[in-house]
Amino acid sequence: MAPQKRHSGQSFCGSSSSSVERSSPPLSPTTKRGLSERFRLPDGTIAHRVPVPCHSRRPMILFSDKGNPGVSIKNILNGGCVQGSSEPDFKAGSLKIVLQWPGYDILHAGHITVKPDTKQELAVALCTAFYKFYSCASKILPSVESVPWALSSKVHLGDIMLTCIRLDTGVWVPEFYVLRK
Asked: Do strands 95-98 and 111-114 pair parallel, antiparallel, or not at all (unpaired)?
């Protein structure tokens, strides 16, 4: 029997934590300017930025793979590597992270704290947290205006890319893109 879909007004999935402690991170050489609303990959696939309330142009840490912006959530979870993950100057400290996705504002599973020593560890922590968020979110119906971004029914885990993480009002907010042909 398939799990029953819940509506976004119903609560479930408590907070989660990955690692802990340390203060605000200093800027690293991986801090760069932002990406556009969408971009095209070499295979012709178009990646669309997932709209979230974060509008900060403050410091960010970019992720890339083989010279292309972003890393596949699924590939990172399956042991894939982030380009430039062995940067010797990477010092992130403790990062308070809030995962956001249109239509799933009610979820509290997206609040975590991580303490990565490498960019690879940061990517793995973010992708693991997003997988847990996705697992919870895919069991509920999103708000009506967010139907095109509905997790599981419209957006599959293998179609999601992590492109960067931005500092916004004291927390770090990952930026995701969805692949659409």
From this structure: antiparallel
Q: How many CB atoms lie within 10 A of CB 36?
A: 8
Handedness of CA 67, 45, 80, 60 (dihedral sign): positive
Q: Is 126 left (phi over 0), alpha (psi -120 to 50) or beta?
A: alpha
| Residue type at position 30 | T
SS3 124: helix
pLDDT tens figures, 35-68: 577 888 888 888 888 877 665 666 788 999 888 8
- Of the candidates 115, 114, 164, 111, the one whose C-alpha atom is nearest the C-alpha of residue 133 is 111
pTM of the model: 0.73
**What letter represents residue 5's amino acid?**
K
How far is Cα 150 from Cα 144, in angstroms, rounded to an integer? 9
